[in-house]
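User: I'm writing a tutorial on reading structure tokens. Could you give me a worked example: one chain, its sequence, then its tokens, then a sentence or two explaining what the tokens reveal?
Assistant: Sure. Here is the example chain.
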Amino acid sequence: MSKEEEPLSPMARVFQLPGMDYCAVTIFGFKTKINPQVLRDALKHNVYKHPRFSSILSDNGAKWIETEVNVEDHVIVPYIDQEEIGEDGDVFVDDYISSLTRNLPDRSRPLWDIHILNVKTSDAEAVSVIRTHHT
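And here are its predicted structure tokens:
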């Protein structure tokens, strides 16, 4: 086994079983709008320090393999029509997060993404949603 490959832990192997599509979703609220470019720049300098964020699964799902990370692919900033949402920012965020749990990440790249929702909610001016898949 090369230095760039690492076997999956027993628990990670469980998450490879059919029907065990597990992802963790973490939500952060911010007092100000989020500048996506600042986040992308920070990730470009730090993502390689975290092996699970810079590795993909092998074809058989048994090993982690180091890979190049295109941060642009992992930072998603959807178009949000604030006028259409109006005062329903909380509902929009809840619906958005719900849709993330129904759509699995692309397994051809590291299994994480960050979604920037510059929408006002009852608790925040903007929300960041981090989705990781059994990392």
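What the tokens reveal: Residues 52 and 135 are 6 Å apart (CA to CA). The chain has a mean pLDDT of 87.
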